[in-house]
Amino acid sequence: MRISDVIEEFIKDLFDDGSDAIEIQRNELAEHFNCVPSQINYVISTRFKPSQGYYVESRRGGGGHITIKKVNNDKEDYIMHIIKNIGNELTSNEVDILISDFLSYNIIDTKEAKLLKVATSDNVLKLSKDLKDKVRARIFKNMLLNI
Amino acid sequence: MRISDVIEEFIKDLFDDGSDAIEIQRNELAEHFNCVPSQINYVISTRFKPSQGYYVESRRGGGGHITIKKVNNDKEDYIMHIIKNIGNELTSNEVDILISDFLSYNIIDTKEAKLLKVATSDNVLKLSKDLKDKVRARIFKNMLLNI
DNA sequence: TATCTTAAAAGTCAGAGAAAGTCAAAAAAA
DNA sequence: TTTTTTTGACTTTCTCTGACTTTTAAGATA
Q1: pLDDT at site A111
Q2: For helices B3-13 and B26-33, angle between their N-to-C axes, nearest 10 degrees
Q3: What is the spatial distance, in angstroms and rounded to an integer, between the CA atom of A56 and the C1' atom of D6?
Q4: Subset of residues 36-55 in chain A with CB less than 7 angstroms from any atom in strand D
Q5: Quick one: which of B78, B56, B74 has its CA closest to B66?
Q6: In A, which residues are within 8 Å of B143 by CB distance?
Q7: Contact A7/A43 with Cβ under 8 angstroms?
Q8: C-beta neighbour count of A7 within 10 angstroms
Q9: pLDDT of A99-134, one tens digit each?
C-alpha cells in the first residue's frame, strides 16, 4: 500500500471523534510516517480537495499548523428541499418557524437569521395581506438560495 | 500554542468588562509571560492593527503605558450615515451603486452583498413601480441596520 | 523657578529560528 | 507510454529575541 493512502486514512481517522475540523503539524506527521514533509502536501492536495468535501487552511512560522475542515453539502441539500416545499405564499409565522429550525440545525448563523427575518417582516414590507405573503415567499426563497 | 496567541487572548480578555479602552504596561506584561518586552510590540503590531478594529497609543518614561482602544465604529457610523441619506424610495440602480461602494470600503462582504441584492431585486419583488421602490428602500435600510 | 540629570519606561530593527509551500525531477505504477 | 507518487532543494511566511534608541517623568541642582 502506498504511503499516501496510509496518510490519507490516518487523517480521515482523526475525524472519527465527530469533530468537523482537525489540525495537524506537517513536519510532525511526516516524521511519524517517515517521509518528506512535502508528501503531506501531496496527500492534502490530491485527497482533501474542496470537490472531495474538505477545506484546508494553514499557518506558517513557529507554532504553524494545517487545519482541515469537512464541509458537508447536507446544508445545501436541506436548503433546496425546504425551498421546494415553500409555496407561493409565506406568513411571518412560518418564517419564524423555519428560521428557528435552520438555527437549531446550524444551517444558518445568527446574522443570516436576522437578515432573513428583517427582510421579510411585516413592518418592513408594509403591504396588503394578499401581496405581502407572496412577496415574502419570493424574498425568503431567493435569499436562502444565496446563503 | 504560541506565546503570541496567549498574549493576544490575555489582552482581549481585558476588554471583557465592556470597556472600550484598556491599558497595559509593556515590561510588566512581558515579565508575566516570561518573554522579552519586544514580544509585546510584536503581538500588538500583528494582532491589534486598525484594520482589526484597534487603535494603539503609548507613553514612554516613568509611569509609561500602552493604551489599546477598540474602534471600528467607523463601519457603523458610515452605515448610519448612508441609511439617513436614503429616502423613502430606492431604485435597483441605486442599490447597485451603494453595494459596490460598500464592497470597496469593506463595509460588507460578498455574501452580504448578494443577500442585499437578491432581497431587493426587481425580479424578486415583482411589484408595481410605485410600491417597488418604497418596499425596496425599507428592506434595504432595515437589512443594513442588521449587518 | 528654571534647568540639568538620571532612571524608567516604550520603540525599532535586523537576525535567528520554526514552521509550511512550491516545483520539477526521479521513481513507481497503471 | 502515461499517470501518479515520492523526493528534496529552495522559498515564503510567521514568530521570537536581544541589542540599541528614543521619549518622558521625576528628582537634583543652580
Answers
A1: 94
A2: 130
A3: 22
A4: 36-39, 42, 46
A5: B56
A6: 115, 118-119
A7: yes
A8: 22
A9: 999 999 888 999 999 999 999 999 999 999 889 999
**Is the Cβ pair A146, B5 closer than 8 Å?**
no
Distance between first and last Cα of chain B: 33
Q: Nucleic chain D: which protein residues 57-96 of B have CB below 7 A from it?
A: 59-64
The answer to whether the beta carbon of residue A18 comes closer than 7 angstroms to any atom of strand C is no
Which nucleotide is nearest to B4 if distance is taken from CA to C1'?
A: D15
* Residues with Cβ within 8 Å of residue B139, at least 6 apart in sequence: A118, A119, A124, A125, A139, B119, B120
pLDDT over 80 at A64, yes or no: yes
Whether B143 and A62 lie within 8 Å, measured CB to CB: no
pTM of the predicted protein model? 0.75
Percent of chain A with pLDDT over 90: 88
Confidence of residue B71 (pLDDT cuts 50, 70, 90): confident
Are B54 and B60 spatial neighbours (Cβ–Cβ below 8 Å)? no
* Phi, psi for B67 (deg, rounded to 5): -110, 130
Q: Do residues A19 and A11 make contact, with C-beta atoms less than 8 angstroms apart?
A: no
The dihedral region occupied by A128, where left means phi > 0, alpha psi between -120 and 50, and beta the remainder, is beta
Instruction: Please write down the long-range contacts of A133-137, taking CB distance under 8 Å and 24 or more positions apart.
Output: A133/A89, A133/A90, A133/A91, A134/A88, A134/A89, A135/B124, A135/B125, A135/B126, A135/B127, A135/B135, A136/A89, A136/A90, A136/A91, A136/A92, A136/A95, A137/A86, A137/A87, A137/A88, A137/A89, A137/A90
